[in-house]
Amino acid sequence: MPPFTLGHFSQVCCQLLNHYFGEIVGQVGAYLLRRGNRPLFDIPCATGLSIAEVKKALAVMIQHNLVKFEASERNNNIAEYSIIHHNVYCLLRYPKYLYMIKRIYGTSEEILLEILLNLGQASASNVIFQSANRLKEANDDSEFSDPSALHQSFLKLAQDHFIIRCPKLSDNANMQKVPTFEVQEKEKFTVPHLEIGPIAKLLKENAAQLGEHGDSEVIWRVNHERFDVELRNVILVNAAARRVDATAGELYHLILKLWRECSNPDSPTTNALSFNVIKDAVRKNEGSSPILLEHFEQYLRVLYEDTSSLIIKVGDAGGGQFILNYSIVFENLACATLDSIVLERFGSKALRLFRLTRIQKFMEQDQMQNIAMIPAKEAKMFTYKLLEHNFLQIKELKKGTSNFAPVKSFILFHVDLPQQVARTALEASYKGLFNAMVRQMHDLTDNKRLLDKHARLETLLETLRGEGLPEDELAYLSDSMTAAEKLLVARIHSMNDHLTLGQTQADDTILILESYLKFSSMT
């Protein structure tokens, strides 16, 4: 780690850069995270790296859309580099991206996305060529080496905005020392005509590289904003399924798709959908379950009458008009998340005080203990614990009876959800995420030799088992690792699984809190 101090979010980003790209990229990234926009010649002095190492690190991060550059305000001939914080953090979500695409589309689209994530940015032909090679090696079947099916899969990803064009050099870029880039709105998701024939020919010849191709200047990258919307929708669908049942989650997923088609995903409130439009969509959807088709009206009524406000009814035209208010929904989800945090850290009585204060807005100490029905001593202890950890805030009201009489003051407790509590929980989530990542890296690094030995042994046993070697000889080979070593490997794998699950859950909490803060700032 560099000598300067980083916040917990920046520490997470620095850890991700170290893990995916190595220590040198991590050092350069950490400096940019700490200092913001910096010119090239500042970075070697601050990090102790050579200019060649810094250039290579910047090139890698620019290729993977983690760093951007623009002309300095003080001197237009000098480029200043800055980290794209959100894109760096999204490195953590790459496994979710791949799982999501496989669930929505299938294996071919997952391979295309994986290749594009590995390359950072690339032309459509290059991504299709490398994906076809990957599928050909994995399946050893000529059917999978046909790039036309992959071309259709690539078109699907672009059509649904999961991938987006990178900006190209502007017309006047040659007149500037620091080039600028631009892309027209209508071209962002338009795939140009691809020459599939030459790609298929190269695949039959087992070529390793694509070489020159017609769309080499049209570069694509992953659209993180679209994946954010989809991950956000997954949280909402899961909330509906937990609140009612899986069929309600299925209906809510379909309604979210309709809202996405007619509304801006960054707007705090969607456009209204009529009852008839939703009903027609359910009927036309091939995957709708028989239970949903039979009890559609009851499930819709349960969703819009529920206090979680997953659906809000705003009119009666067309059988009823329904909207989604993101700020209200994510406020409810954030409150549920914070309630869970308070319960785990301080217990059920502290949760009762926290929830009561949040509902009542402002409360005095005596009111809190009387309404919550908690003994005075315990109520004071839990109140000041919540106050110490920033889950409660104090507001002092002064009341003067006259110019000469002493001023009487009242101490009121309240919950400042957007400005204090949610941000405190968000920072704690980043801290927990960083600790889990560091611990996981520590365990894997310290036991690397043992894990490599175990992996080699398992591969050897699997190969020999396929060749028909007797079980007694396999057991003899398996005994080359002691029982203690096998137990330690099992413990490391179990700990690794728990830490990975913890990181996933922390990321879900972060997404809920960030979405709440984003939409609450718009209202």
From TrEMBL:
Gene3D superfamilies: 6.10.140.1450, Winged helix-like DNA-binding domain superfamily/Winged helix DNA-binding domain. GO terms for molecular function: L-lactate dehydrogenase (NAD+) activity; single-stranded DNA binding. The keyword Nucleus applies. Residues 153-333 form the RNA polymerase III Rpc82 C -terminal domain. Residues 338-415 form the DNA-directed RNA polymerase III subunit RPC3 winged-helix domain. It is found in: Nucleus. GO terms for cellular component: RNA polymerase III complex. Keywords: DNA-directed RNA polymerase, Nucleus, Transcription. Residues 11-69 form the RNA polymerase III subunit RPC82-related helix-turn-helix domain. InterPro entries: L-lactate_DH_AS, POLR3C_WHD, RNA_pol_III_RPC82-rel_HTH, RNA_pol_III_Rpc82_C, RPC3, WH-like_DNA-bd_sf. It comes from the Eukaryota. Pfam families: HTH_9, RNA_pol_Rpc82, RPC3_helical, WHD_POLR3C. GO terms for biological process: DNA-templated transcription. The keyword Transcription applies. Component of the RNA polymerase III (Pol III) complex consisting of 17 subunits. Belongs to the eukaryotic RPC3/POLR3C RNA polymerase subunit family. DNA-dependent RNA polymerase catalyzes the transcription of DNA into RNA using the four ribonucleoside triphosphates as substrates. Specific core component of RNA polymerase III which synthesizes small RNAs, such as 5S rRNA and tRNAs. This is DNA-directed RNA polymerase III subunit RPC3. It comes from Daphnia lumholtzi.
